[in-house]
Fold this protein.
Amino acid sequence: MNIVELHQVKKDFGTLSVIKSLDLTLEQGQILGFFGHNGAGKTTTMKMILGLHQATSGQVKVFNHDPCSSQFNAYRYQLGFLPENVSFYPQLTGLEVLQFFAKLKQVPKQHCVELIEQVGLTHACQRRVKNYSKGMKQRLGLAQALLTEPSLLLLDEPTVGLDPIATHELYQILKTLKNKGCSVILCSHILAGVEKIIDKAAILAQGELQAYGSINELRKQQHLPTQIKFKGYFNIEQLAQKLEVNIQTHQTGEFSFETEPSLKLQHLKILQSQLGLTDFDTEPPSLDALYKKFMEPKETENAHLEQQTTKHQTTDDSVDLPQSSTMKGAKP
């Protein structure tokens, strides 16, 4: 069952085209990683899904309804949203803020205490929000987004201000929600660690979708090399000749080399046949490497356009001064 469906969606603000043509689906219980540069259109897309922006053209459906229609009001509490820059009443305590939102969303107050504990703010729940750090406000914002036990959760840069432990805890919460059937759209600039929890990735650039699919599907599309790491006792020069690769030696005593997808099995067989081998591991192309690869054509296009613009500006700024054999007041 599709929770979110976008079909040929476009969004303009005046003469500015922010989303040019977007097709996207999200199934129940899936986590979608939404990635792109600043200004790519990620937040605008999320706001269209929330019903805060009306698409200029195309079709947006959430729970099989237009989120901007009056019919969607019955589904409004099934949405949870954490914006990038959360802001709360500074004079209220963390618990009071959550209780305020609970009253607005018609949620029992006792649920607030459970959520405060879930996001790790029990020790600071009686502290005024004006004394909260950025990370603590993010945690409180997440608790607010989870108040109604949403079927669809949208998170815009949720790990901003979180330390590594808090980030790991957030990912664990998302896994639990996913197992309960909640669908999640996670917008982030921090790619490390995200690939382990998402089911699909969508890469956006200048309002256009550059890639969409599971991590494995994106890897098959790009054919990026796999890194093989290993330990043991070898004649590295002879082994490198057998494998026909460049082997890197690390200070940890570990060795590594890169192999193309078509040669991976062949290289692993040769490596496993070595008597001195004590351990090995393979690392497929990371989400970060895939992101850079999918963004290359757009970056090349932008560089070309910038070069052309600079060239035209230089031409326009060049002024040919009229030449004269004599000037007024000058001696011939």
Remarks:
- The mean pLDDT is 89.
- The two ends are 90 Å apart (CA to CA).
- The chain has nine helices and 13 strands.
- The chain has two domains: 2-215, 225-283.
